[in-house]
Design brief:
The complex is a heterodimer of chains A (about 110) and B (about 120).
Chain A (H helix, E strand, L loop, with lengths): L3 E4 L2 E5 L4 E7 L5 E7 L5 E6 L3 E5 L2 E6 L4 E6 L8 E8 L7 E2 L3 E6 L1
Chain B lengths: L3 E4 L2 E4 L5 E7 L6 E7 L5 E8 L5 E2 L8 E7 L2 E6 L8 E12 L5 E7 L3 E5 L1
Parallel strand pairs in B: 2-11
Antiparallel strand pairs in B: 1-3, 3-8, 4-5, 4-9, 5-6, 7-8, 9-10, 9-11
The chains are: A mainly beta (about 110), B mainly beta (about 120).
Chain lengths: ~110, ~120
């Protein structure tokens, strides 16, 4: 099946800093989603982005499908951005999302 | 839009009892729902795919007789953990797939997740 690798596994920032999270995948995809899992366990949809670039406030994402990676940018980070960020993909005729192991982000005040 | 609820949010039960978890799509109809399991500090592991009106499709290694799934309507799927044991303690999360308009790209299926249910088996 498709493999998803996220980096870095852990990231500690000071409030106000910017960061880039990466997601590499092993095959072509027709669905790529970024999620934020807050400390209470809720997964929040950030982006549906199998290709191209999207922005939503301080967050933006870019997927380069031909090179099989996606980047999530967080600017001017806030303590509420803390949590785990997951990348999940679906490829080919597969109906299932495959999740990466996530990036644990800690933003300190 | 695209809200998925789960009930209960937390449950503690004795070993040997059965626990039912409900997953509802509140503002859209979902022909397909998914059940995941997450251990502490780990990623989500897909357990099964729930299809309205038909049998669930289980992932390899998931016991279908232990984890009973019913998708009785377009807005409700249930997961029943039968004869629960301490090793079944985990965080269970459901998701529902909703067609979303992508404009010129047509429609795509985006998954939306419930808040999860933390199961503790004593």
């Amino acid at each position: 099946g498709i493999q998803v690798e996220q980096s870095p596994p852990d990231l500690i920032l000071q409030e106000g800093a910017n960061s880039t999270l990466r997601c590499n995948f092993s095959d072509s995809v027709n669905n790529l989603q970024w999620f934020h899992q807050n400390p209470w366990g809720q997964l929040i949809n950030l982006f549906y982005i199998p290709s191209g670039t999207k922005q939503n406030g301080r967050l933006s994402a870019t997927t380069v499908a031909t090179e099989r990676y996606s980047l999530l940018y967080i600017s001017s980070s806030q303590t509420t951005d803390s949590g785990v960020y997951f990348c999940a993909v679906r490829g080919g005729s597969n109906y299932k999302l495959t999740f990466g192991k996530g990036t644990l982000l800690t933003v300190n005040p | 839009g695209a809200v998925v609820s789960q009930h209960p949010s937390r449950v503690i039960c004795k070993s040997g009892t059965s626990v039912k978890i409900e997953c509802r799509s509140l503002d859209f109809q979902a022909t397909t729902m998914f059940w995941y399991r997450q251990f502490p500090k780990q990623s989500l592991m897909l357990m099964a795919t729930s299809n309205e009106g038909s049998k669930a499709t289980y992932e390899q290694g998931v016991e279908k007789d232990k984890f009973l799934i019913n998708h009785a309507s377009l807005t409700l799927s249930t997961l029943t953990v039968t004869s629960a044991h301490p090793e079944d303690s985990s965080f269970y999360i459901c998701s529902a797939s909703r067609p979303t308009s992508g404009g010129a790209l047509g429609y795509y299926n985006e998954q939306f997740f419930g808040p999860g249910t933390r199961l503790t088996v004593l």
